[in-house]
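My current task is to audit a protein record that another person submitted. Alongside the sequence sits a line of tokens, each denoting a local backbone shape. Where you disagree with what is written, explain briefly why. This is what I was given:
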Amino acid sequence: EMGGTWATFDAEGQASHNKARQLTIPEDLKESVRRIVEERFSDVMFFDGDRESMCSIIMNEGGDLSAFDERRPELAHIIEELVAASPEADRLKVGQTTLATDINVKYAGKDLGAERFQEWLESRHIRPKRYIAFGDSASDIEMAEELDRDGVDLTFVFVGPNPVTHGREDG
């Protein structure tokens, strides 16, 4: 979740769930988005209630991508208005991937998740020889760039429908 949640394991293999509270989205904003999606957009997308540190609206499984893309601008407009009206608007951002519209804290991202992953590896004295990263959006490029900062061989495979250049999606 864009570096906002992670799991750690003790010596016995017991998992602990962690969440960066400063990277969470206000609950009232999440609830407003959930309600709007369920009332107006449920034919093509759903509110992912499992997310803890972000708000995601995702295309219905097996859905029609063109129908989803057709409705997405209307949703984006509504979400941007909700975010702008939030008392925490200055720390939030709205982004889009191939199959989702997300609300995140501005400094959260897959690059932060990759940084936390690298810190975890380092804390265990694990030194990868190579990374292979896959992605379908600009945020995946940011993740790959973070992984590339340590000088380890990196292969990034873009699997999305739209070309990505200079950290943004075209099309």
Notes: Residues 65-85 form the longest helix (21 residues). The radius of gyration is 17 Å. Strands lie at 5-9, 15-19, 45-47, 55-59, 92-96, 100-105, 130-135, 153-158, 164-165, 168-169.
